[in-house]
Amino acid sequence: xNRVTLAVEADQSETVRMAQIVISGTTAICDPLGALWLPDxxxxxxxxxxxxxxxxxxxxxxxxxxxxxxxxxxLLAAVVDRYRPGCVISLGxxxxxxxxxxxxxxxxxxxxxxxxxxxxxxWIAGNHDPDRPxxxxxxxxxxxxxxxxxxxxxxxxxxxEAIGEIAGHLHPAARVVRQGKGVRRACFAGDGERLVMPAFxxxxxxxxxxxxxxxxxxxxxxxxxxxxxxxxxxxxPFSRLxx
Amino acid sequence: xxxxSLTAETVSSEILPKVFTDWFRAREWRPRAHQLDLVGLAxxxxxxxxxxxxxxxxxLAGFLPALTDLVRRGQARxxxxxxxxxxxxxxxISPLKALAVDIERNLATPIxxxxxxxxxxxxxxxxxxxxxxxxxxxxxxxxxxxxxQLALLIANGDADRFFKGLRYVVLDELHSxxxxxxxxxxxxxxxxxxxxxxxxxTIGLSATVADPEALQAWLMPQDPxxxxxxxxxxxxxxxxxxxxxxLESRDRVPWSGxxxxxxxxxxxxxxxxxxxxxxxxNTRSQAEMLFQxxxxxxxxxxPIALHHGSLDASxxxxxxAAMADNxxxxxVATSTLDLGIDWGDVDLVxxxxxxxxxSRLAQRIGRSNHRMDEPSRALLVPANRFEVMECQAxxxxxxxxxxxxxxxxxxxxxxxxxxxxxxxxxxxxDADDLYREIVSAYPYSTxxxxxxxxxxxxxxxxxxxxxxxxxYARIRKRADGxxxxxxxxxxxxxxLNIGTIIEATELTVRLTRxxxxxxxxxxxxxxxxxxxxxxxxxxxxxxxxxAGKVLRFEGIRENExxxxxxxxxxxxxxxxxGGKFPLSTYLAAQVRSMLASPERWNELPxxxxxxxxxxxxxxxxxxxxxxxxxxxxxxxxxxMVTYPFEGRLAHQTLGMLLTRRLERAxxxxxxxxxxxxxxxxxxxxxMGQMFESGELSMENLFDEDMLGDDLExxxxxxxxxxxxxxxxxxxxxxxxxxxPGKEKTGRQVTVSADLIYDVLRSHEPDHILLxxxxxxxxxxxxxxxxxxxxxxxxxxxxMLKRLQQISPLAVPVMLEIGREPVVGEAxxxxxxxxxxxxxxxxxxxxE
Lengths: 243, 847
Prior knowledge:
The complex is a heterodimer. In chain A, helix 1 crosses helix 3 (about 70-85) and helix 3 (about 70-85) runs parallel beside helix 4 (about 105-115). The longest helix of chain A is centred in the N-terminal third of the chain and has 16 residues, at about 70-85. In chain A, strands 8, 9, 10, 11, 12, 13, 14, 15 and 16 form a nine-stranded mixed sheet that branches. Chain A contains five helices and 16 strands. Chain A starts with a helix and ends in a 6-residue tail after the last strand. In chain A, about 20% of the residues lie in helices and about 30% in strands. Chain B contains 33 helices and 25 strands. In chain B, the strands form five sheets. A seven-stranded parallel sheet of chain B has the order 3-4-2-5-6-1-7, with helices on both faces. In chain B, strands 8-13-12-9-11-10 form a six-stranded parallel sheet, with helices on both faces. A five-stranded mixed sheet of chain B has the order 17-16-20-19-18. In chain B, helix 7 packs across helix 10, helix 16 packs across helix 22 and helix 17 (about 415-425) packs across helix 20. The longest helix of chain B has 17 residues, at about 95-115. Chain B is globular, with a radius of gyration of 29 Å. Classes of the chains: A alpha/beta, B alpha/beta. Chains A and B meet through helix 1, helix 2, strand 11, strand 12 and strand 16 of A and helix 20, helix 29 and helix 33 of B.
């Protein structure tokens, strides 16, 4: 099960089990498709879409299958349809590089425009896409503050700035081993104070939560990985994960 | 084509220039008949295949045509501005770098002693840039190189000038080169060389093979519309018959397993009684284990060394040098030593574990005693009872001269894609011309024009139905109708990704003295490389065998696996990928035939004979063409054991497919395990009873149609196919090869091949790379052709035996259960378990 398979089968999933968590006092729902739903404010958060990633590779001579953007948008449409949010925040690295938005194919562009239409849409700047995506509506911001939460692409280095932070950038993933078999999945990583979102794009890799670059951000005693399953989010404490 | 030596002498003075006959005479040598024959054929402009056993002077024979021709042309080639173009005269291609270096040394002696005006140089991956540049400006007469270097040379804009004067291509160890993708790439390279020099002659040097005509065809340019062209063939009969023995142990031969640990005292005795012993094993982990065992009982401190492909190169070179100087008494080695490097005076070859193929055994035994007229001595050490039968079968085969080398196989499309890009890097090409050139290469002689065009389309824009990459095309067809590379970076990328050998991701093993401090310690010496997937199964404190030492795993730092000395205790042995050869079809048939003929059991040791006799009493012995199926209950489970003798890969595929079918028939199968000889499935219902009551039909269960939809359905989700896809994608240039030391660029620049596979499968199931992947997997990992042949063979010949308890023949595979990992993928239920056990804990078991 990876995000490509998920996207292909996204329209078929009926009953799903989300995980309800609390971030610095605010209730949030982790969806198995990899989005975060804030029911009180009606905000849907996605991170690291990396749209047009294969096109970025193609520009450098690696001709990867040109279908990743459509698949990611299919997943995005499914999750938007599930929550019908008034506001969507895309937490940065929405496009794999700064040429991505301009190079969008016509049908992908239409699809994205349909999703943006009729709701507030925020593009948070990421390291891959520091500038406003060309040719698309929606507001741009480096950081966004809303209802006691802060939304930014890269997690803050200082823990004092991390209270109520929702960030992306690091593509957290976690591995569980039982009966000699291991399963590795993208995950939400949170300790009750801050949350790092999984990458939403279908062609994104992951960084193990066991890597110091990730786990030093958290209080490891309270750190939980919410792993993305087929139709359920599985919550596993940090101490039970393997590298 | 043999003549007695007297005629050879008179003939030699006609064929060889005087300086050569003088040289032979001064050394009291006589040129051998096949050496002269080869010179004679070459002089007449013919290409030829020389098949000869080790020690027959094959290499000198291969170079004599070149040496004599260069001498006859004399100084003319050397004059600046001479009429003769001063390019490479002879190209020698070997599968191993080390072999090329070895040959350079061996050629130096006659050239020096005869004072020949001939320059010989090597060009391998290790050749420094400055020397490469000089070689381009001032090429040697004879260039010794590898298939990968040839691909690089012909993809260069200078190739025409560099190879203009090429007369001969000498291909060493041709039998081992042609059967792999490297061979496919090489055949395309030679087709290009022929285009540059139409009169080019090839000289193939080979060990004995099952199908010499295929090699003869390989050596010639083919025309798909004309009758197949074959090169000349010279066969040198083997010298003295080898003396082969099967080790008879005082100890019991084990029922199962591959370690042969029981026989080590006898093996050590054999080493003591001989000057130098080569010990061959089938896997690297066996090599490690054996080396350790031998040193444990090495009371006389005999110099015994270890040699396998994961060890650090400098360490391997040291072992090779010590061996050449006769400083070692024994070397434990894997297939890295199979190929022709000259060894000191090896007087015994020990083969531990069954040889898996009669040809492989013959070649390995050929390692001992390089003087052709004296018999080689070899000792076979079976690791279990089935292997005793296999060893006996191989032994019979070696005397009979039977051969079971694998077929050449059709050229693969991923390799073709790599070559097409290379040819665009060399010069603009016309598609019609390139197609004609490609079908002249034997492995590609049947490829259709439409497949070729799809490959060109793939190279240009990825070959997708969705045409969005026109603007990023790597090669473009211009107004003049010629295809050109779009920009110089494409050629740069091509050079970095060349070749067909895809290594599993490996980590460098580094030894530290600081034990128990994790990975953040000062490093010591590098011991070698180890597969990443194996390291991922370790936790700090685990021990394993590597480089002949027990090591303690400390941690991973970047791309290094940090270890300390491991001390005592039971180490985990590295489960290296590869190195396990499947049992050859030929030997499998021999083993079946031996099993079916009780009169031949007398050849077998008493323990094994008794084992078969009891099988005959308690169950049944199948005839050679029958497939025996036994069912019996054992510890609350029901078992079904089959004995196809078709090798582990084919059995694994069979197991997967049968399990699916039994599932559908509600037999509730739980798992299966496969060995080279048999396969066991276990489940919750009595399959024997289901067969007898007619609820389950034996014929339907084993019907060939399992290779249709069931296979497709299983393949689609199989991890094996993903692994194969990755290799094809790298070779074809869809994803970049990982380069050692460059991994640090991080996750953003790499894309998981699994994801690409899933995208392609969902959007373009007929994409050319998926086609290539399926063909590869069918031939390699799944051994489908063999399974198909077996299903055909056993149709209406299945013999069911219902038993109340386990049969003697079933014991080996039953013992493998639990030892071999059960194949299969992990799914969400693993996650659910991990998540739910927290809940159970919190509820204190109240839920």
